[in-house]
Amino acid sequence: MLVPLGLLSGCGAMGGLPTCGGSDTKDLVGEIVNDMLDEAGFEDERFVRLRDIEELGYNAKDELRSCYAVLVTTDGEAEVQYSIRWTDKGKGEYWVEASIL
Q1: Three-state SS for 89?
Q2: Does residue 23 have a pLDDT over 50?
Q3: Sheet with 64-73: strands ordered across
Q4: CA gap 76, 97 in Å, rounded
Q5: Residue 22 has pLDDT above 90, yes or no
Q6: Which of 53, 100, 99 is nearest to 75 (CA)?
Q7: Contact (Cβ atoms closer than 8 angstroms) between residue 68 and residue 56
Q8: CA–CA distance, 94 with 89 (Å, rounded to integer)
Q9: Residue 41 has what DSSP assignment?
Q10: Side-chain half-sphere exposure of 70, counting CA atoms within 13 A
Q11: Could you tell me which of 67, 71, 76, 84 has the fewest CB atoms within 10 Å of its CB?
Q12: Using 50, 70 and 90 to split pLDDT, how confident is the model at 10?
């Protein structure tokens, strides 16, 4: 499968860094995956969902959450790792970075 990396920003996370299984996080991972598939020439393959979502760890000092899930697309399944970190905590803005394994 692919080994690209993608990232998108989100906002509105007041109170705490979004979780691995949060709906906004999953939506951003889906957007990232579809962008990576398009860039790789797989325009017919689309993100369907994430399953078996796990938090691999949380670094409280850097406020970075590391996540793993099984990525389900219209063409099959793959593993994906993604991380969530603040870009501006005061404004509730964060980055989601994903890599298909």
Answers
A1: helix
A2: yes
A3: 5-10, 93-100, 76-88, 64-73, 47-59
A4: 21
A5: yes
A6: 100
A7: yes
A8: 7
A9: T
A10: 5
A11: 76
A12: low
Q: What 3-state DSSP class applies to 96?
A: strand
Nearest to 60 by CA among 92, 80, 81, 86: 86
**Which amino acid, residue 63?**
E
Q: What is the pLDDT of residues 31-45, one digit of tens each?
A: 999 999 998 899 999
Determine the Cα–Cα distance for residues 35 and 101; give it in Å rounded to an integer. 16
The reported pLDDT for the residue numbered 1 is 40
Task: Provide the residue type at 55 as one letter.
Answer: E
Mean of per-residue pLDDT scores for the chain: 87
What is the dihedral sign for C-alpha 58, 61, 64, 66? negative
Tokens 């850097």 belong to which residue? Answer: 62
Here the tokens at position 40 are 């790789």
Q: Is 14 exposed, middle or buried (0-12, 13-18, 19+ CB in 10 A)?
A: exposed
Distance CA 82, CA 96 (A): 7
